Amino acid sequence: MKFHYFLPTKLAFGFGALDEIGAEAKALGGTRALLVTDRVMVKTGIAGRVEESLKGVSCELFDEVEAEPRIEVAQAVADRVRAAGYDIVIGVGGGSSMDMAKVASGLATNPGPAKSFVGNNLFTKKPLPSIMVPTTAGTGAELTVTSMVTVDGHKQWINSSLLLPSAAVVDPELTMSMPPGVTAATGMDALCHNVEAYLSSAASPITDSAALEGIRLIVANLETAFDSGGDRKAREAMSAAALMGGIALQARMVYGHSIGYTIATRFRLPHGVSCGVPLPYMISNYAVACAPKIGRLAEAFGVDPDGDPADVGLAVGERARGIAAHLKVPTTLKEVGVAEGDLAALAEECVTMYPRPNSPLVFDAKSMAGLYRRMWEGDLRS
Fold it and tell me: How far apart are CA 115 and CA 155, in angstroms?
């Protein structure tokens, strides 16, 4: 067995962890911070709480982050961070805000338009130190090398190991005010990260261990967090599960995320919803290709692990679909507005624009079109 794993980010986790951010910023040499966030975080006062907790580190706001941020937003935050003498970047919010904070840290020291960094490992100079403060329990972006951007209506990514945050402060208290819809979408995102990483052929014992624990925590707590947002135990467990997903993401995603990218911008879907729709089908369709691992996945979902892998995968897929239905998340492509006549074109886009060489299940345009049809009809069978 041979694998690599890299995670230099310093992590502070738990209720009250936000109190440590000032010390973390100063330890990184921070004296003047750019706080990257969105207007909701400003309006709810969460951005202000972070500023107060910085304790002596001066702070200015960039609050123009949008959901599924366009490359133009990445350029705007680059222009801002390059125009002043910031020495640290702090991302506060969900995945979009943290992604733009990571971009800001990288583009502060690497010249060129933001669009020229779309792709893999295009940064050459060390970025500014960065601290991520998640306010949702989903993306795990505080522990990843990726910043997602929308370019010409298509989901793309800026990937570089240099973008790994210097520190992450994960305080479940900041997730307590999430409304049910956001809890559902971000929770499904965390579930997708953990499951897809587990199904990946690039998985390792480290990513598998994180993924299985993340799945177990989500299955046991997501519905409670959705139904009773004030349940502190469930909120803490979901913050931990999102972290597990961030750790597991080094195994990379399989085709569930690729499918999600083809529908996210077209139908204005939150990321967790766009990836959540195909999740049950990923599980049932990958079950045979991942037969030696499907039993442990079933156990994490609380499903009987014994039996034919195809049958076990179908049962786990049904459990995942049941969780999505409880959260009022769509479970078919038809529900999100995909027209039957568009299935083949979406499948072609999926395999052409978003290939997954780490997928143990190989698709071409024809077989992917068959999967899109089953997702449209709601048929979990492989």
Answer: 13
Please check whether the domain covering 180-377 is classified as CATH 1.20.1090.10: yes
Do the domains at 10-175 and 180-377 have one common CATH topology? no
Residue 359 corresponds to which tokens in the numbers above?
């997928």
> Is the CATH number of domain 10-175 1.10.10.10?
no
CA dist 261 and 356 (Å) reads 13
Q: What is the pLDDT of residue 333?
A: 98
- The set of residues, in sequence order, having a beta carbon less than 8 Å from that of 277 and lying 6+ positions away, is 259, 260, 263, 324, 329, 330, 331, 332, 333, 335, 336, 375
When pLDDT is cut at 50, 70 and 90, the band that residue 9 belongs to is very high
Helix (H) or strand (E) holding 75: helix 71-82
**Residue-range domain boundaries for the chain:** 10-175, 180-377
The candidate with the shortest Cα–Cα distance to 139, out of 101, 88, 87, 89, is: 101
Among 171, 174, 181, CA closest to 240 = 171
3-state secondary structure of 93: strand
pLDDT digits (tens, 9 = 90+) for 81-110: 999 889 999 999 999 999 999 999 999 999
